[in-house]
């Protein structure tokens, strides 16, 4: 059934199936007013004929490219890699292409990535900004292009955003450790993450104080370099600290590795709870308890928010906070 020459068109598929061009077009887009059986039949014929949708022609007609950009820190971070994969699944399901751009949490690079996205005429942008006053956000706002803050909330802004309940996550982590018998606890965040670091520690500290943990036994540090961590941990351990909350799972595994490599006796190592529940998506050899921010729901919500903003630019700002849960794997006992 393959066409001998040239690009297969909707007219070719209509002729081959006996349906109108309009029905073929709507079936290929999985529109609800076309029966599932008809959609499947038309799509099967289209595949056999080698049909590929011409997005350039579609964008010229509609004024939209059906492309969105995701601007994140780095795909070497499993959190962003997993979130990017989930967002792509949602984007493809809705007929969008996804361009992933990495800022490496550098403000200048972040601006370059926004400029690149704008130059590609994307319909919208999902961005995880690296700072409260990121110039990239100013560029997006002045461009008028729809965008959604991903895993971030900037207090005082009127930007669309979707993020997990960071404070509740910190609260659940501390409460879990306290329920396991720990009374001297610390939190480690290898760098200050916009909004999230403070909120997670706020929740962590609140749970500790509610449980009667003295303020002197609630610790927090943001090491600038990996080598700054061990001296701090040794000091905390010497003061009786027995449990840690890591800002994210990747940092939790990094801490475990550093303590092992330093020869710290297992009996002296603090028990750990992480954040992101990476083990739900990727198999790592060291199971840890973790706060699950439900990344699939974040991906689905972010795409839905952006899609609504694209089609209804006058909607009031939408700020969606997603609930979190704790997953226990025994690393806190």
Task: Report on the architecture of this protein.
By secondary structure, this protein is α/β, with parallel strands linked by helices. The chain is 44% helix and 16% strand. It has helices at residues 10-17, 21-28, 36-49, 55-62, 78-93, 107-119, 135-143, 166-179, 196-210, 229-238, 249-261, 295-311, and strands at 67-72, 97-102, 124-127, 147-150, 160-164, 185-188, 218-221, 243-246, 271-275, 289-292, 319-322, 325-327. The chain has a six-stranded parallel beta sheet with strand order 2-1-3-4-5-11, sandwiched between helices. β1 (67-72), α5 (78-93) and β2 form a beta-alpha-beta unit.
Could you name the key traits of this structure?
single chain; 333 residues; Rossmann fold; 3 domains; 6-stranded parallel β-sheet; 6-stranded mixed β-sheet; 16% strand; elongated
